[in-house]
Amino acid sequence: MSAVPVIEARGVRKRFDDHDVLRGLDLAVAPHEVVVLIGASGSGKSTLLKTMNLIERVDDGQIFLQGDDITDPRVDADSVRARIGVVFQHFNLFPHMTVLDNVTLAARKVHGMPKGEARTRGRELLESLGLGDKADEYPDRLSGGQQQRVAIVRAILTEPEVLLLDEITSALDPQLVGEVLDLVRELKRRGSTIVMATHEMSFAREVADRVVFLKEGVLVEQGPPEQIFDAPQHPATAEFLARVRGL
Predict the structure, then answer these.
(1) Which CATH class is domain 7-93+163-245?
(2) Where does the sequence pass through the membrane (predicted)?
(3) Which one of 18, 138, 167, 184 has the lowest number of neighbouring Cβ atoms within 10 Å?
(4) Distance in angstroms between the alpha carbons of the first and the last residue of the chain
């Protein structure tokens, strides 16, 4: 395993108005590791992912991608984002474009992949992930779960160095959640490096190599799923999990 983390936050701080959302947070993610962020709404999970993709600029601290300081103001943000795959709660698919065109758009326009190559790779990837028969459909003909899976395929087509998933099941009906999580399981099996924020505790237990509990912008506790869920060391972790299980 490489000694250099794929992505690393060092002392990251982010403030909105007079509210400190991230307070000196440190997190390093190893190659092929799946790190799952848990915590209450407002704990900083989404903001951390947005700073990793430079959607939000940090106020202090640094973020490194494969050892490169991407928070250096001289860095071209678009070139950094081209190395990172991101999927948010909402699918953001273009309704007037087919699934295949949605999946290949960034590969062609951002990465300069030839159209023929992009479409061939897109069809192969859709097929391998159970969406081959949807390639020529339009998004409004797909279920929410299928649309979210298409958004994930779009994010991984260009083989990003890390995949950031932000509450990707929260906008879905409960019966559609499973098919999206099945795709994440498959990406884990293929060795993807993933940082994922989720409220799905049972899924976090199953898929994570490491679970990270955030509270009020601070990394309170981290460890293997069995430690965090079965024997949390910090009272705040235990309190959060007890509250979640009681819902």
Answers:
(1) alpha beta
(2) none
(3) 18
(4) 40
Q: What is the pLDDT of residues 53-78, one digit of tens each?
A: 999 999 999 999 999 999 999 999 99
Query: What is this structure's pTM?
Result: 0.93
What is the rounded distance in angstroms from the CA atom of residue 145 to the CA atom of residue 140? 12
Amino acid of residue 142: L
Q: Return the percent helix, strand and coil in the chain, to nearest 5.
A: 40, 25, 35
Summary mean pLDDT of the chain: 93
Closest CA to 57 of 72, 46, 42, 67: 72
The CA distance from 121 to 147, in Å, is 19
DSSP string of 179-210, one letter each residue? HHHHHHHHHHHTT--EEEE-S-HHHHHHH-SE
Q: Which helix (H) or strand (E) holds 93?
A: none
Helix, strand or coil, per DSSP, at residue 73: coil
CB atoms within 10 A of CB 208: 24
